[in-house]
Recover the amino acids of this structure.
């Protein structure tokens, strides 16, 4: 197929003009390549991780150890995606304060579990110690380990990007925490379930 700039140029799905390295809390969803159920299955409302899922869980937890600028809140590995709340903390020497942002642009004040993504036409760039660099490192490590285990070098594990929602206050944080914690129980109605259509 011939290269078409409008079709093939990689676009950012981040909020235009927002600095994703600044302190804040973010609800992140990372999906598997072609929505494959790679990480285990839901049994009686509980996630049963397989070997690949255990790698994902281990590396997600290690993220906060390797990357001192982030802390992890509620998270869950699902059959074909990961949900997690990632908090970027204040850099060393910065003033203290809540990691939740109350000064977001008005158009980004979405309902807590609204998973719609605002697209823009900026090329994707990664800033050091940002949300995107942390997610990229996590995805890369998981892909390498899973592909060693299944003897399939170069095989995709994840879809190319990820989805995020900026959490703006404590009320939203608490609602999203509950959504993440209850995700296995709600699997049959989840947009990413095999039998359900998805806007993602």
């Amino acid at each position: 197929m011939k290269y078409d700039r409008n079709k093939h140029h990689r676009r950012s799905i981040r909020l235009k003009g927002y600095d994703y390295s600044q302190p804040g809390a973010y609800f992140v969803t990372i999906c598997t390549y072609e929505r494959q159920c790679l990480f285990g299955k839901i049994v009686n409302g509980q996630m049963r991780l397989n070997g690949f899922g255990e790698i994902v869980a281990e590396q997600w937890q290690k993220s906060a150890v390797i990357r001192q600028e982030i802390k992890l809140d509620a998270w869950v590995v699902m059959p074909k995606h990961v949900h997690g709340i990632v908090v970027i903390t204040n850099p060393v020497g910065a003033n203290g304060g809540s990691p939740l942002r109350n000064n977001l642009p008005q158009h980004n004040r979405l309902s807590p579990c609204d998973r719609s993504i605002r697209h823009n036409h900026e090329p994707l760039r990664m800033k050091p110690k940002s949300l995107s660099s942390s997610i990229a490192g996590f995805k890369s490590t998981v892909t390498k380990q899973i592909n060693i285990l299944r003897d399939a070098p170069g095989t995709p594990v994840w879809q190319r990007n990820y989805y995020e929602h900026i959490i703006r206050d404590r009320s939203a944080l608490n609602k999203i925490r509950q959504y993440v914690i209850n995700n296995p129980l709600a699997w049959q109605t989840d947009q990413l379930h095999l039998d359900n259509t998805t806007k993602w």
Remarks:
- The first strand starts at residue 24 and ends at 31.
- The longest helix spans residues 131-149.
- The beta strands are 24-31, 40-43, 46-49, 70-77, 81-88, 163-167.
- The chain is about 25% helix and 20% strand.
